[in-house]
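#onboarding

Welcome to the new folks! Below is a worked example of what a typical request in this channel looks like: someone posts a single protein sequence, and someone else replies with the predicted structure as tokens. Don't worry about understanding the tokens yet, we'll cover that in week two.

Example request:
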Amino acid sequence: MAKKPIDIKTHYGGRIYRRIAAIFPRGIVNAYAKMLIYADIDEIDPRVYFGFSVAFPILVGVLAFFVLQFFLSDTLYVGLGALTSAILAFTYLWLHLILLADAKARAVEKVLPDALQLVSANVRAGMTIDKALWLTARPEFGPLEKELRKMAAQTLGGRTLQLALSESTSRVRSKIYQRAMLLLEQGIQLGGEMGGLLTQIALDVRETEALKKEIDAATTTYTLFIVFASVLAAPALFAVSTFYVETTTKLWQGQIASNIQGVGSNIGLSIFQVGSTGAPLISASEVRLFATAAIILTNVFGGLTLGLIREGHAKRGVKYVLPFLLTALLIYYGGYYVISGAFGSLL
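Example response:
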């Protein structure tokens, strides 16, 4: 019998990643294992994913260190850029799991009332709860179909429904879903009428979703203000400020050079100085660096704040950060070059 060839990438790479994961505390690996379950990723070993999450950012940081040397002369900036690149890569891999888990949770919450109503109808028609769950598992319910099938299979396999419900809450990162399953579990323990209980839980979930929509409508003004301030207003003002600094620096350099021979070549890198020569102290490149950093921080926290306002969790605003950043930086640099092209020739 022919021996199955070894997948070198999976075999050796997985072994290396497991060894890397073994260096860290088990609690960290367990946190990744939990997030992989929430994200519905069952085919990847948590130790392998965590080891990759450590090795990949290191590789990104090393590559960034060599690449940035072609663009930056200061070793400190090169090191900071490489470290930032590694941190961003590590953060991306973790946030990727969070976004997948949240997407699954939102998909479950969206169809949960309809699924509970269908289970209730099946129970009232005379079906047992395990058969009702099995018949309710339909493709249109998306991720919830998988959870319903797992619960039905566990109950058919001999487990109690309470245990199946409890285990299901550990696979969906949704407080609404966990609360609904907890109410259902308590109703079974107390011997309540299942059809009416399921219907009432479905109504509660719908009321919660309606309340969320009302909150979204009430916070529209705050959302527009955050988007306008962080994405539009701040980059535009920074573009004007950067052009003003460069223009003022050039004017001062020309005036100082014409009045003080030999001094103009040693002065001239900045905005304001209160002194005998009136020479600038901060260079225009430093102002541009400050503006870029301020725009990045403003839009990162703006996106997180938007997620907190609209969806109740700051981490759900991560999906807004990248579009905000790209748009804001485009407005900043595009606005700067437009202003320079329009008014630079007049100076």
